[in-house]
Design brief:
alpha/beta, 18 helices, eight-stranded parallel β-sheet, 458 residues, single chain, 2 domains
Length: 458
């Protein structure tokens, strides 16, 4: 018995899990409709120079509500359906999720902030997914997603978001990072194994991170490293992503650099046969409470996604600042985004060459420092680099993250590094970053600027 099979047996012996029939699941994946695989749609898009795919967020506790949400999305012309998981499941607390699901069903009231997939089980969920016959993307934020991913793939969900860095540093304070790397290695192997049966299962990294003044170099480095960890386990379809940063110029440069470097590093590890895609998240920071402004911001995000040549855009809603969006608000934003994309029909992409060169050099320097760590495996090199502050995510709550890097916006709203901490940003790049900022102010004024910059869109 392989190590993976042994681990699988332990994970699936959980008391809240229906018995898995792996032969049946394999047969299902083998004969599943190609329409359920986002990798199939990406392939068609690049072949036919098609428009980018539109995907909202959304998850409700009960099967009935989730089904109704999908009906709304289909009417709004959605390309990719979301399945957002509740936070009890994210924390592997399936017992509480079970209780809250029952209460939600009995009282017709949302007692969970998403869909408890493990408790619903794959047999039930598969009925809904095959009914709509559209690709579904699993959005979850789980450091230990092994059971969740087994259930998702058995349900017909063939796109899995997240990774050991992007689903840990922004969300968790204490969860051990080394364990997260090993749990995600399991996820990558499961995805790679199932990918051999039909179309590839697509893995997608979570680019927004803390969504708070993260400089593009850090975002890109983490995207590249999660891509490499995934590809080295045999995954053949991967999406790197980032979110709107507040400066159109910086977004366009980020899009150009991430595409170029993802291709480069995939080739470096002998994985040029893997298909790499780009996903753009509409604004992930604090949203304006004025709903008209919120709609303008969403439209602006869509324009930028078109300019960076994204393969998929993930939408937000005008209700973002006031609570969990309704299905109506979610459907409206899908329809609006589809309309904006239709009238845009592609846009010129003019990249600032100096900014692109500086960002490329910053990313290359950090990647080189990670690879130079003496550890014997890539995940250990990354682990040490986070611990040593070579990778540092601003405003991460996790105890292992140094939080020594300080960033601020310049007059043109670009995110600039004013204290690099232990991140090996080359001297001339650091000088370039600082030259765009007024650093003669006192500390209080700089702190006030940072607070202002966090709420820039409100």
């Amino acid at each position: 018995m392989s190590l993976l099979s042994e681990e699988r047996e332990i994970i699936l012996s959980n008391e809240y899990v229906d018995a898995f029939d792996f032969e049946e699941v394999e047969e299902f994946v083998k004969s599943a409709s190609k329409e359920l695989f986002i990798s199939h749609h990406f392939k068609n898009k690049s072949k036919n120079k098609g428009k980018m795919l539109v995907q909202p967020r959304g998850g409700f506790p009960t099967y009935k509500q989730q089904f109704a949400l999908y009906e709304f999305f289909v009417d709004a012309n959605v390309d990719v359906l979301p399945l957002t998981i509740d936070s009890n499941t994210r924390l592997n607390d399936y017992g509480t999720a079970q209780k809250m699901l029952r209460l939600s069903e009995e009282n017709d009231m949302d007692m969970l902030n998403g869909y408890p997939l493990v408790n619903h089980g794959y047999r039930t969920t598969r009925k809904m997914i095959t009914h709509f016959n559209k690709p579904v993307s699993l959005r979850h934020g789980t450091p230990d997603a092994r059971l969740l991913i087994e259930t998702a793939i058995a349900s017909g969900i063939f796109e899995i978001e997240g990774g050991p860095i992007t689903y840990l540093l922004p969300y968790s304070k204490n969860f051990p990072l080394d364990k997260a790397f090993l749990y995600w290695k399991y996820v990558e192997r499961v995805c790679a194994n199932y990918s051999k049966l039909n179309q590839p299962i697509n893995r997608e990294s979570f680019g927004p991170l803390t969504a708070t003044l993260v400089p593009p170099s850090i975002t890109i480095v983490i995207q590249l490293l999660e891509m490499m960890l995934s590809l080295e386990e045999g995954v053949k379809s991967f999406s790197v992503s980032f979110s709107q940063q507040g400066s159109m110029l910086q977004d366009i440069v980020t899009g150009a650099v991430i595409k170029k470097m993802a291709k480069h590093y995939a080739e470096q590890i002998g994985c040029s046969d893997a298909s790499i895609h780009l996903v753009y998240h509409q604004w992930m920071g604090a949203f304006p409470t004025n709903k008209d402004y919120a709609e303008q911001l969403i439209n602006m995000s869509t324009v930028i996604a078109s300019m960076v040549g994204a393969d998929k855009i993930i939408t937000k809603t005008r209700e973002e600042a006031t609570g969990i969006p309704t299905k109506e608000a979610n459907a409206k934003t899908v329809a609006d985004t589809q309309y904006t994309l239709r009238i845009l029909n592609g846009l010129p992409n003019v990249v600032d060459e100096q900014e692109e060169e500086i960002l490329t050099q910053e990313v290359s320097a950090i990647m080189e420092a990670v690879f130079n760590d003496p550890a014997d495996t890539l995940w250990r090199k990354i682990f040490n680099s986070i611990k040593n502050g070579i990778i540092d995510v601003p405003f991460s709550p996790h105890i292992i993250n140094r939080n020594e890097m300080i960033t601020i916006r310049d007059a043109n709203k670009n995110i600039r590094i004013i204290d690099r901490g232990n991140v090996p940003i080359p001297e001339h790049c650091f000088a370039f970053e600082k030259s765009h900022c007024d650093l003669n102010k006192d500390t209080t004024s700089i702190v006030n600027d940072i607070i202002h910059d966090i709420g820039i869109m409100q």
